[in-house]
């Protein structure tokens, strides 16, 4: 059964499902167990320090293919255990972590102190390690294991890792799309307080508990939404550390060298034209890191994917076709003074909703964008022009209906018993559970299943006596959230 929904404005609201979700029960209400998704990550950034569009080179380690390891190697956070090995399953001592953290801080644009003595009496013999330990103490990233000891030989636990990263983010200015709950946006932080972890309420410090929850919502931790175990007392592995650090850098201004183009969403359900949601971001860096190049003129153009050869992006002479989409300026694929210009931090933000007519990604449409820079008057030549960046955005059909199914047969009684929507009523046995499955759908000539995760569906249900004319004896309101397949139960 297809039940009409109001137009999606952030969430789906099931207005016309009252009758559809009315199990008219024989004697007493059946139990209604409504399942919902676990707490999603609320404060994530949609941009990356190492986006796919940048084609970050492999770190060259023979014992891992992790792109997170590639990323921290690219930014100079790690050099590996040897030139060819990283030892992803290995643990990390507090001495080594201090070195990693100072390098990460540099990549994210944090100014380090002079490394002068901070009062620890158990420092290692390495001068570099001593400086790093003192520098993270100066930043407030470590407090030491006591006022006078750092315990450099101890392994870093996952709880300690969370506190290290959370404190470092507190010293880091957010980059484009980086999250901050500070009204002055002076540091990276989150404000969501809910969590799914069942193992951080006991045996964890107050600060550790809060840091773990905050990093979960920032998308820094190495688990998926809904994970229930964090393992705070376990030693952090080098692979896990790489993931934490790579995800943290995404919130900062750290970006690859050169021109890099990325989108806040490369795939979406429905048209990609919502302000502050669907954006293109361009960065320009002389070298990998957070120091941007300001004042760079950048041409950004796009093409809608088409099976028509006449609508191909480039002609036989590698020049742009007339069907190119102009996002700024007057001519696509051509450097002119009226093109985009990087700001003081070396970035450009393009709101697809505010761009020139025709450059938004419409429903069920694919658009590939390019960003590049050159001298004024230069034309883009595919395969010849270097130093540019490209990314593709794909939109699928959005849902406009919810299809509901149940193992229970529909009622056959009259409207006198069940109200006017007799075909939408369902019987339920006394004491039984009723499970109703809802699937997002789209009607576009033919009905299509819509796989859209995280859509909230408001459900109004009513139950009543089999023989009475007033069925609304027990009205319940609940929210269910769709999974990756667009289904909720």
TrEMBL record:
Residues 116-179, 195-259 form the SLH domain. InterPro entries: SLH_dom. PROSITE patterns: SLH (PS51272). This is SLH domain-containing protein. It comes from marine metagenome.
């Amino acid at each position: 059964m297809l039940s009409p929904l109001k137009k999606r404005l952030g969430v789906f609201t099931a207005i016309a499902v009252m009758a559809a979700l009315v199990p008219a029960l024989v004697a007493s209400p059946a139990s209604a167990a409504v399942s919902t998704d676990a707490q999603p990550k609320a404060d994530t950034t949609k941009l990356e320090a190492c986006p796919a569009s940048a084609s970050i080179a492999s770190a060259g380690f023979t014992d891992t293919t992790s792109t997170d390891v590639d990323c921290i190697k690219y930014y100079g956070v790690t050099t590996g255990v040897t030139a060819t090995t990283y030892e992803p399953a290995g643990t990390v001592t507090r001495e080594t972590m201090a070195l990693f953290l100072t390098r990460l801080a540099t990549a994210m644009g944090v100014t380090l102190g002079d490394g002068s003595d901070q009062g620890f009496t158990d420092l290692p013999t390495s001068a570099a390690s001593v400086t790093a330990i003192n520098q993270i103490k100066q930043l407030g990233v470590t407090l030491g294991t006591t006022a006078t000891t750092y315990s450099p030989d101890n392994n870093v636990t996952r709880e300690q890792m969370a506190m290290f990263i959370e404190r470092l983010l507190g010293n880091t200015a957010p980059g484009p799309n980086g999250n901050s709950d500070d009204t002055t946006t002076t540091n990276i932080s989150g404000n969501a307080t809910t969590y799914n972890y069942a193992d951080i309420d006991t045996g964890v410090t107050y600060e550790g508990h809060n840091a773990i929850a905050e990093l979960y919502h920032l998308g820094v931790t190495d688990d998926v939404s809904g994970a229930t175990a964090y393992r705070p007392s376990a030693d952090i592995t080098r692979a896990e550390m790489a993931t934490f650090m790579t995800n943290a850098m995404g919130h900062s201004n750290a970006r690859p060298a050169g021109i890099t183009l990325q989108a806040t969403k490369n795939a979406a359900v429905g048209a990609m034209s919502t302000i502050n949601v669907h954006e293109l971001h361009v960065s320009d860096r002389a070298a990998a890191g957070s120091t941007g190049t300001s004042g760079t003129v950048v041409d950004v153009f796009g093409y809608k994917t088409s099976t028509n050869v006449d609508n191909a992006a480039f002609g036989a002479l590698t020049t742009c076709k007339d069907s190119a989409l102009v996002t700024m300026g007057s001519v696509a694929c051509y450097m002119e003074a009226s093109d985009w210009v990087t700001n003081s931090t070396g970035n450009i933000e393009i709101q697809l909703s505010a761009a020139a007519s025709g450059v938004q990604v419409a429903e069920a449409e694919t658009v590939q964008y390019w960003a590049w820079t050159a001298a004024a008057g230069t034309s883009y030549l595919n395969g010849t022009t270097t130093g540019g960046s490209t990314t593709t955005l794909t939109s699928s059909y959005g849902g406009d209906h919810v299809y509901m199914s149940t193992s229970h047969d529909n009622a056959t009684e009259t409207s006198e018993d069940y109200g006017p929507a007799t075909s939408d009523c369902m019987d339920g046995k006394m004491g039984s559970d009723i499970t109703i499955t809802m699937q997002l759908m789209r009607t576009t000539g033919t009905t299509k299943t819509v796989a859209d995760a995280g859509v909230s569906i408001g459900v109004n249900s009513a139950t009543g006596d089999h023989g009475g004319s007033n069925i609304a004896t027990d009205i319940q309101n609940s929210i269910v959230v769709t999974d990756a397949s667009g289904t909720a139960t």
